[in-house]
Design goal:
There is one protein chain. The chain is about 70% helix and about 0% strand.
Amino acid sequence: MTRELATVGIVLFAIKLAWLCIDHTLRVYMGDSMTYLHSAAMLTGTGGRSFLYGWTLRFTALPFDTPVAVIAVQALWSLLTSLALFAFLRHALRASFWWSAVPAWLLAAEPVQVFMERMVMAETLGLLAFVTTVLVFARYLATGNLRWYFLATLGGLAAAAFRMNFLPVAIGLGLSIPLVYLFLNPAPHSQQRTKWGRHLALALAMLAGTHLAYTHAYGYVTKYPPGYLAYTGMMRIGLVAPLIRPEHFEGTGVSGDILEQVKRPLDDHWQRGHHIWEKDGLWPMLEKHSEQPELVARTITRRAMLGDPVGLLKINVATLGGYFDDRRSRLRMLDDKGVSAPSERDLQLILAWTGWDARGIDQTETPARAYFAASAGWLTLCLFVLAPLALATSFMCWRHPRRDQYLLLALASLGLVANHLLFAHIVSYRYIHPFPWFVLANLAAIACLVTARRRASAPAGPVRATAGRPAP
């Protein structure tokens, strides 16, 4: 095991080092990167973005006072993510060395992984936290020990603290994985069934307790109502704006007539994100008409989501069509690769916080950015093939002795796809950042299952008898 990990790790290190030599230009995505850098410099939270990523940067990369340190640290996190892929395939699925190592090496050189290592964004660290959570769930399934389950719930919270997009998947796995374990380990006797009932109750109590504690602790620190983000309502406006109706404002202290004053179209689902950030959107209007716009936003968005879940699904399905619209996909790729220039004030703050002069970075073309820009087709493929691959994995593994591990992979993969379908309000290639890990994992898993079936169905070779005793 140690020799294999060392071999894979050395190749991964060589890939990351080669890319660091080829392209050591740090990038910013405006204005998310500014909130992260502010958190790192001031050790404060930001209402709409992860505080944990900024704090991690503060104590890992920023002390070196060079932008290359941020890339080097994030490349290390990405290396560990690739190593986690090898570990899962080799030790959880019992795949062969090559079926485990090659996907890990491919992931290390995959376009969105390489580019996001160079972006001051939480994607790289968030993915590491999430795949670590999957590995811990694998240990829980293998042992049935609830201590592993408890650690997995904490891992899911960490992943969500870095990237809120992982929260629904983490909760979904927390609910489903204990059921998978109990289903695959049935209790034939009444005493054992009582034991399994306690097991499930304890698992759900751990899940609810850890999330409840986190939300209340976050609310206490930020002085906002308990939640995963201080600006939960504001961010949800960018998801459900077309579904908000005047009656949703009842009892909030704000009249539903406010919708008539919003100049930006509410019924155009392509405008959803602009209702947060643009002056003519719904959120700025709420700020004008309420002393507690966040509470109002939480109320109206919750009512909108519960009142028309099918409507939300319809507009999100329509949004997926944007990946096949040349104009929309091209504009989104331009935005995702960081062509928005920092303002003069932002440039001064970046220089003061990090010692890095980011002037002109938006116009600077480098190999990693060109590599990422050329990957739109690959990333779109990952988005749309992951669910079929996961379903194939789940169907093919049913008679495999390690089917619990294969089902974990399938459920995590399907959770990512469902999460994107339900909560991605725009076309965005950086949102697909976690998908290649699971696409490569499912491809390797299917290859292993096909190989195992062929070996099982292959006719036995001729048996050579030995003198004096029956052939073995």
